[in-house]
Amino acid sequence: ITKQESRLYMSFIYVAFIALLIGGLMGLLQVLVRSGHFTLPAGIDYYQVLTVHGVILALVLTTFFIIGFQFALMGKTVGISDRQRRLGWLSFWTMTIGTAITATTILLGKASVLYTFYAPLQAHPAFYIGLTLVIVGSWIAAFVNFHQLAVWKKKHPGEKSPLLAFMVCINMAMWLICSIGVAVSVLFHIIPWSLGWIPSINVLLSRTLFWYFGHPLVYFWLLPAYMAWYAIIPKIIGGKIFSDALARLSFVLFLFFSIPVGLHHQLTEPGLDSTWKFIQVVLTLMVVIPSLMTAFSMFATFEITGRKKGYGGLFGWLKHLPWKDVRFVAPFVGMLAFIPGGAGGIINASHQMNSLVHNTIWVTGHFHLTVATTVVLTFFGVAYWLIPHLTGRTLTKSINNLGLVQTYLWAIGMTIMSAAMHIQGLLGGPRRSNFSDYGGTEQAAEWGWYQLAQAIGGSILFIAIILMVYIVAKLAFFAPKGEEEFPIAEEEENAEPTPMWLENWKLWIAITIALILFAYTVPIMDVIQNAPPGSPPFDWPIGNS
Ligand code: HAS
């Protein structure tokens, strides 16, 4: 990787970690407010803080880290030309300018609409324009990645593409297809409404288009973590990839099933036929399968590597894992968190159980295990080697040990916070709400201890964030100069060869589009027909925001 390339990849990563610091501080403020023992100073609004937290962590940190990481993977495996690198910069600046515009509107208090920006909550038009730029910037990155792979394929006719490049392109194909939904909604629906050009908005249509995008969004976060699990972790533990074909198949299944499932976020909404909710719940259970394949594959890699190193017994192979190497431990803790996180997801997706947990803080507990632990700890695990690799420095033993402390602090803070959220959710505690004693009701009094536990867990997490930002600064600017490995594993010698049909892009995209049309055509037609202009509550006039 050249210096010029490193500069591009690192720029994305710097923005991601600045976002972590700002978003983390907002998270701390929220848990303190919700504990009932703290009020925000200077008239700052709770929902403004919550919007900064969600937008900056769920949208900015993730997207910037992912695109920087994926560019690095593509550069390493298939190469990047000068022209592609220049387009990479265009992507970076478009996204950064968009972020700055959106952030300004939130800080001015003109966009306290949370990261899902549900209508009829209305933000300043610049909020949506900024977000649109972030998405357009990410599309530029997607096309550069597709072009990188195409150029490589032309030079290597008949060869199977490098696994990581294949995975990046699947993730970006999914992202491109799903973000068209939110782009259509924002450009033709929300921006004209926020500018006052159209008198009302079809609330249900805007929510349905949001979740058409919003669910694949969570897999857009997850798949880069899976890239690290499948192709990088085996190298770090001294092993090999269990099966290249299995890894590719699981990514293809994510492409199929990530998108036609958005209605599982809308199970309690009227105006959508339950048949289609049921169909999308079934498809949601299909998207669990590639995660189970991933779990199987990780266990296989760990066990085969351990046994090859001579560790016997039923679980003896666990001993060989590098328990003191933070590049392994941080993602491993992420994997552990995904066991309850994924189980919680299956509960959410089950229609009847969803009615118990929907809009409670249980859901917040779910996504702090999945995105804020599984994904984020894996990204930290990547940062420990990627940053020094790109900046020409090394991960020293002392930074590694600090990283281990960081990981344990994160695990402890998140266990306390997320467990308390799950329990409080089952007791009916609402999500996305400022502190209230709800008129002194007995039920709200029951929640007090859990809110306190969240404040304790959240404070530990904030300390862990400060530590992480310190480690990142150290790795980027102060660690000793040297060479850090870019660990990419090879496949097991005796694995089944990868069949070439797995690279049949046209077929995969056609199946994806067919599934989307099947799952969404009737629901969208219903939403439009059931809510002709001027029919509240679905068609909402301006002024009620
Ligand atoms: Fe979710 C809500 C269903 C996965 C994120 N989810 C959310 C929201 C977010 C989110 C942010 O159906 C809130 C959105 C909002 O603001 O309203 N989710 C699922 C399902 C899965 C799932 C079925 N979610 C994720 C992931 C996320 C994420 C991943 C982020 C990265 N989720 C829902 C539903 C809702 C929802 C409903 C709406 C709730 C409502 O009512 O509002 C599945 O993908 C989960 C499958 C995963 C597994 C786990 C496999 C385990 C693995 C680890 C193996 C461990 C190893 C290590 C190898 C089945 C792969 C062990 C080694 C040893 C030695 C022990």
Automatic annotation (TrEMBL):
It comes from the Bacteria. GO terms for molecular function: cytochrome-c oxidase activity; heme binding. One of its GO terms (biological process) is aerobic respiration. The keyword Transmembrane applies. InterPro entries: Ba3-like_Oxidase_I, Cyt_c_oxase-like_su1_dom, Cyt_c_oxase-like_su1_sf, Cyt_C_Oxase_1, Cyt_c_Oxase_su1_BS. The chain crosses the membrane at residues 12-32, 52-75, 87-108, 128-151, 163-191, 211-233, 245-263, 278-302, 328-347, 367-387, 408-427, 447-473, 507-528. GO terms for cellular component: membrane. Residues 1-526 form the Cytochrome oxidase subunit I profile domain. Pfam families: COX1. It is found in: Membrane. It is a multi-pass membrane protein. Its main location: membrane. PANTHER family: CYTOCHROME C OXIDASE SUBUNIT 1, CYTOCHROME C OXIDASE SUBUNIT I. Belongs to the heme-copper respiratory oxidase family. This is Cytochrome c oxidase subunit I. The lineage of its organism: Bacteria, Bacillati, Bacillota, Bacilli, Bacillales.
